[in-house]
Description:
Elements: H1 2-24, H2 31-51, H3 59-100, E1 105-114, E2 120-129, H4 132-143, E3 148-153
Helix pairs in contact: 1-2
Amino acid sequence: MEQMKTAVLSACMLSAAVGIISLIRPGKALERQIRFLVSILFVICLAAPVMQIEFPSDLGVFAEEQAQQHEEMLTAGMEEQLLKEVTHCTEQALIEKLASEGISCTKMKATLYIDEEECIYCSDIEAECDDFAGACAVLEEVLGEEVNIRVTEVLS
């Protein structure tokens, strides 16, 4: 009797899950695949209590580990993309600042990194400008003394 109760309870829970999935599915493109997966889950949920199949206890732990690894991969990809965009914006802002001071800059390369506390820091700046002393002074004023600044003077 307990097995029948478990089978009916599993079927009810799966039916509720199917209802929720059908409401949030991404359109009709995956409808057949979702229906197939739900059918398999339904059969397993009904068969498991009747056949007294026990699922491995570490199956939930394995699923959690897989989800955590997936999340870490997404986070790493997002951090990399964010770092690229911030680097580009930093380089453009420094070029504009030098231009506002009357210094022509032909090349700018910023080296940024994200530390353990998820803060973005600038460690190095490489620039090619027409005014060595002026560029060094402006960049040091903007970035501070902690950043390694390397300016190469371009003779025109």
